[in-house]
Amino acid sequence: MQVQTLNDRFFKKKEVHMLKKMTLTVGFLLFSTSLFAAQTQIAQVNGMMCIKCQKMVTEALQKACPDATVKVSWPEGVAVSSFADKSNLSEDEYKNAILGTGFEVVKVISVDGIITDAEEARKLVD
User: If you ran DSSP here, which 8-state letter would residue 123 be given?
Assistant: First the structure.
């Protein structure tokens, strides 16, 4: 009878320990995804007329935020920088990086997640 009770206690402790581990793991995963969530900055840019204009804005943004994936579309009039983490630039700093190329920046927004399509980005800034 005493052996049975010792076994029961052992397995209950093991179950409680396992439950604590699972709870901590789930908590960590939920916490870490909010800390390291992807982010995209999108700018509506006026005045780009050709591929050279697009290249100027792309290079300026790559220099300002080298850890971002930068896509600029002159036909859509948008600049999109996607970050695996949060952006290292404020919206004003992002805007100023583009203004340094001589183009007008109408609006800058930041969204959670990765945006890669220029048309989708354009809809978000309209």
Answer: H
